[in-house]
Structures are given as structure tokens and as C-alpha cells.
Automatic annotation (TrEMBL):
It comes from the Bacteria. InterPro entries: DUF6495. This is DUF6495 family protein.
Length: 157
């Protein structure tokens, strides 16, 4: 597998897509039931192939990722050639930016000495989707980029 197997819940959400996938493999519903009973290893391989196809499709469309932890906000903008990062680190012990209070504090205190802003640009590697998947495994989530655009706008002023 290139990525990770989808969860049971994800398979349930993608039930129709999985049926269509099996149809492209010329596997009927009855054959699938038989396959699961008599050749579970082959059924497992089909689940893995389907999972990789879904991940590949999702990752190809990703333009923005966010990773938020109590002291750090990492915002990624992914283009065809580059991964741009806006990172914000809070060095004030009593502030947790994952809380409503902490995030409001950050918005009001961006120029405080306890707040460090960094930007970086990195060239995309040959396996862009694998790079993005690693970030997702580390806790990043796919977004529409509102936070990235907000902070990009603030930084450009």
C-alpha cells in the first residue's frame, strides 16, 4: 500500500464507489462475498487498492493543509511546484491557541514578542501526494485555506 487503508466508516461512506470499483474489476456482489470467505487475502488486496485510489484522488485536489497544536499554527498552501508555509508559534505559557480564548488572544496579539511568525517555501518532491499524506498522518487536516489566506493577507500589510 502506498497510503493507508480507509476506515470502516470511510468504506461505509464510499459504499457506492466501492461497488463501482469492484464492477471495474469484474467482481459481482456474489463473487465479492465468496472472495471474502474463500480468499480473504485477495479481498484485503482489493480493499488496499481501492483505499490507495481514493487517497490518490483526494490528495491530488489538496491545495491547503492546517496543523494546529496548543502552541503552534502551521498553514500550508500547496501549488503545483511549491509548498508554502506560514508558521505561527506562541511562546506564552498560559496560551493554548486550540481554545477559543487562546485563538482570540493570538489574533489580538500577533505583534507581541511572545508570537513568532515564520514563512517558508519548499519545492514539491517527485511524490507530492506522499508528502501531503505524511503531513496528514502527523495531524494536518485538509482545508479550503481561509486561515492561510487570512494570515497571508496580514503578513502582506
Amino acid at each position: 500500500m502506498k497510503y493507508a487503508r480507509l476506515t470502516k466508516e470511510q468504506f461505509e461512506e464510499l459504499h457506492q464507489e466501492f461497488i463501482n470499483f469492484l464492477a471495474t474489476q469484474s467482481i459481482t456482489a456474489d463473487e465479492w462475498k465468496t472472495l471474502k470467505k474463500e480468499k480473504p487475502e485477495v479481498a484485503e488486496e482489493e480493499l488496499d487498492v481501492f483505499s490507495d485510489l481514493i487517497w490518490e484522488g483526494v490528495l491530488t485536489k489538496v491545495k491547503y493543509l492546517e496543523h494546529i497544536s496548543p502552541k503552534q499554527l502551521m498553514l500550508f498552501h500547496i501549488t503545483d511546484a511549491f509548498m508554502e508555509l506560514i508558521a505561527i508559534k506562541v511562546e506564552q505559557d498560559d496560551i493554548d491557541i486550540t481554545t477559543t480564548y487562546g485563538y482570540k488572544w493570538l489574533q489580538q496579539n500577533l505583534h507581541d514578542d511572545a508570537v513568532n511568525l515564520y514563512t517558508s517555501t519548499k519545492a514539491i518532491t517527485d511524490d507530492r501526494n506522499k508528502d501531503l499524506f505524511i503531513l496528514i498522518q502527523q495531524g494536518a487536516v485538509i482545508t479550503k485555506g481561509e486561515l492561510y489566506k487570512y494570515f497571508e493577507d496580514l503578513l502582506s500589510k
